[in-house]
Amino acid sequence: MIIKVFDDKHSLGLAAAHQAADAIRAAIGQRNRARMIAATGASQFELLDALTSLPGIDWERVEMFHLDEYIGLPADHPASFRNYLRARLIDKVRIVDYHLLDGEQDPAAVIRTVGHALQSAPIDVALVGIGENAHLAFNDPPADFDTEEPYLVVTLDDACRRQQLGEGWFENLSDVPRQAISMGIRQILTAKEIIGVVPDARKARAVAACCEGDIGPMAPASILRTHSNTTIYLDKSSASLLSAAVPIVIQR
Questions:
Q1: Into how many domains does the chain fold?
Q2: What does the pLDDT read at residue 172?
Q3: Looking at residue 245, what is its pLDDT?
Q4: Which domain holds residue 130?
Q5: What is the C-alpha to C-alpha distance for residues 5 and 8, in angstroms, rounded to an integer?
Q6: pLDDT of res. 146
Q7: pLDDT of residue 213
Q8: Is the CB of residue 177 less than 8 Å from the CB of residue 22?
Q9: Helix (H, G, I), strand (E, B), or coil: what is residue 70?
Q10: Are 130 and 221 in contact (CB under 8 A)?
Q11: pTM of structure
C-alpha cells in the first residue's frame, strides 16, 4: 500500500483524480471499456469534482458500480447515494452504463441483480474512503472478512450513523437509517487498482488504526494493506497520527 500525504484536500483530490483517470484511460485503451466502483460521502467531493473535469476520458465507455446505499431512503433524499452519484458523477459526464443500488426495493433482489453484473468481469479501479470508525464501504466493525458475496445487507453501528449526522446529511440521529446494502470486503479487493481518499482530522484515528494497527475486522479498512495495488491519499490532518515508522510520500 502506498500512502501519499498532501498539504490540503484540494491537492489530494486532484492527484487522486489524475490517478483514477489514468486507470480509466488505460482500461479503455486496452479493452475499449473501463469498469469502476465509485464511493460517496463528503470525503469524495474534491476527487469527483476534479475527475469529472479532467479531459480525455470517454465516459460513454465507462461502466460504473455503486459501493453502498441506505435501505429505505428515497432516491430524492439529500443523503441518498443514488442522488449523490447522479449529481456529482453520472449526470455531469453523462455515464450511460451504471448500476445503482435501489434501497427502496427488495434488498435480496437488488443484491442479486447488481451483484451479478458486478461479478461478470473484473473491475479496473475502485474509489473508496475510510470511515471514522475505520469502515470500508458500509462494512462497520466487526466486518465480515470471509463472505464471497458481492453485496450484503449490513447493520450500521452508532459511530457510523453519527458520522453521517455530523457530515450534515441528516437533521437528527434518529433519521439515519440503521441498515444498508454494502459491497463486500472481498469483492472490493478484487479490483485491479484501489484508490482511497481520506481527508480531514476526524479520520486521523481511523487512518492510524488501518495503516499501523492489526489487520482485522475491528478496523475493516486495514484489509487494504493486503492488496497489491492500493494508494491511500491523505491530507496533513488525516495523517497527523501516523508514526514516523509508516512509509509515506509527501506531496506538494
A1: 1
A2: 92
A3: 65
A4: 2-250
A5: 9
A6: 95
A7: 93
A8: no
A9: strand
A10: yes
A11: 0.95
